Amino acid sequence: MAEYIPPTLDWVREQVELYEGSGGTEGTTLRDTGLPCIIVTHMGNKSGGIRKIPLMRVAVDNSYVLVGSYGGREKNPVWVYNLRANPEVEIRDKTEVYKMRVREVMDDPERQRLWEAGAQAFPTYDEYQAKTSRKIPVFIAEPV
User: Are 60 and 140 in contact (CB under 8 A)?
Assistant: First the structure.
């Protein structure tokens, strides 16, 4: 059994602990924004450890859109590389937990449709894309 490696950023670790520790009844929104988030449990591509990251809740049909914005920084968040290497994930949406498989969506029009769903849920994604020269990765997590 792989070992859980907590997030290094304090606020991220605290959000995961509150969300998971409450069984999904607390910590379900991104800090002071009031916007809903999910917890994505995945495997580290280098460590082999279990990783957990809160991401914005962008639900499309029975799937979730995962946007690797990293606040518009010039590099991808580490979890992007983890998902590319290990597409099997669990997603906690409040009290429900789903086994899912992710795939990166590279091509329009699907990518555009998913990006728009993301920007509707979290309008700041458009600002983040404007801040960076990289094409922000977009994944879709689908039921297995």
Answer: yes
**CATH code assigned at 36:** 2.30.110.10
Asked, for residue 50, whether it belongs to a domain, the answer is yes
Exposure string for 101-124, b = 16+ CB within 10 A, e = fewer: ebeebeeeeebeebbebbbebbee
Token code pair at residue 89: 């994930």
Is residue 24, in this structure, part of any structural domain at all? yes
Asked if pLDDT for residue 33 goes beyond 90, the answer is: no
Q: Tell me whether residue 83 is in a domain.
A: yes
Nearest to 50 by CA among 29, 21, 79: 79
For residue 2, being part of any structural domain is answered with no
Axis crossing angle, helix 110-121 with helix 124-131, rounded to the nearest 10: 120
Q: Which DSSP string corresponds to 47-75?
A: T--EEEEEEE--EETTEEEEE--GGG-SS
What is the structure's pLDDT at 1?
76
Mean pLDDT for the chain overall: 96
Phi-psi map region of 114: left, alpha, beta (phi>0 left; psi -120 to 50 alpha): alpha
Among residues 68, 71, 70, 52, the alpha carbon closest in space to that of 3 is found at 52
